[in-house]
Write a structure and sequence with these properties.
Elements: E1 2-3, H1 16-37, E2 41-45, H2 57-70, E3 78-82, H3 85-88, H4 96-106, E4 111-116, E5 119-124, H5 137-155, E6 176-178, H6 215-225, E7 229-232, E8 239-243, E9 247-251, E10 264-271, E11 274-281, H7 285-318
Parallel strand pairs: 1-2, 2-3, 5-6, 6-7, 7-9
Antiparallel strand pairs: 4-5, 8-9, 10-11
Length: 319
Amino acid sequence: MLLADIHLLGPRFGHWFDKLRREWQMYRTFQTAMSLHNPQAVFILGDIFDEGYHCSDQDFNNYIKRFYSLFYVPENTKLYIVIGNHDIGFHYGIRPALKERFSKAFNVSSVEMVTMKGNIFILVSSMALHGDNCFLCKPAEEKLKQTSHLLKCSRNQGEGDDCKKYKTLPQYSPPIFLQHFPLYRPSDSHCKDIDAAPSNIINEPFREFWDCLSRGSTNKVLSLLEPRAAFSGHTHHGCFTVHREQIPEWTIPSFSWRNKNDPSFILAAFAPDTYKVTKCYMPKESTVISIYVAGIVLIMLWMYFSRHRFLRGVFYKDK
C-alpha cells in the first residue's frame, strides 16, 4: 500500500474542528484499507506532518503520538516512511537538528534500500538531491553511488574484484524508486488521471527543486539506479508519467480530504520480474457532505410532518 501527503495539522495553522474531521476521515479510511487488503508493507511518501519543519520538540512528540494512533499497522505489516519537505523543510531551510529529529523518530535516512521477497525498493529524500555538496546532499549522493555499485554487483552475481567487499548481495531485480518529489516533468499538462490537477492549474510550469526534481538530478538518479518503476507525491494530484520511454512513474494524490476532494491511494503487487499497480479511489468529500445535508433535510422534514400530524391528532381529538 502506497500513500502520500497526509499533512497532519499542527498547532499553529490547524483548527481543532478541521483536525477532528480530517483525521477521523483518514483514520477510518486507512484502518478499513488495512483490514480489507492486509498489505505486507505500507509506504508513506512524505509530508506526514503539515508543520514538522517549524514546530517545537514538544509539538513534534505530540505529532508522533497522533500519527501512530491514526496510522498504526499490525505486527505482520512493515511501515516505511519517506521524508517530505513539510517534515523537515525545503532544501535551503533544513537545519541538521530538524533532519536528525525526524530521522531518529522514524528510523529513516536520506537514502535507504529495502529488500522484500526478491524486490528492491530505494527510498530517497528529495531534498537531498540538489547536488550542491551541502551537509544533506553530499552523503546522500555518496550513498546513491554505493547503492548503484551494489546493484551492479548483484546483477553481475558478484563478478569483479570490486564486488568482493560485499559479504552478501541481494537477489537482483530492477529496483522500485520511492521519493516525495516527482521526477522532472515540465508540468501536469499530460496527466489524464481522474484525480489529476484541476484545469485552472494543470498547465502551470513546474519549478525545479520546488515542484519536482531538477533535470540533472532526475537523469543522475535514473542512470545510477535504473529503476523499473517510480512512485512519488508532493503535488497533491494524481499523474502517470513515463520517463525514458520505459520507466513509469505514479504520482500519488494527497491522502487528506483537506487537500483533495477525491483522494486515492495505491495498492501494488511486486514480484522480481513483474508488478501490478491499482489505484483505489476514496469517497469524494463533496459527495459525503451532500449525503449529510440530504440526511439532515430528511430528518427535519420527518420531524416537521410527524409533529404536524401529532398536533392535528390532538386538535381533532379535543374538538
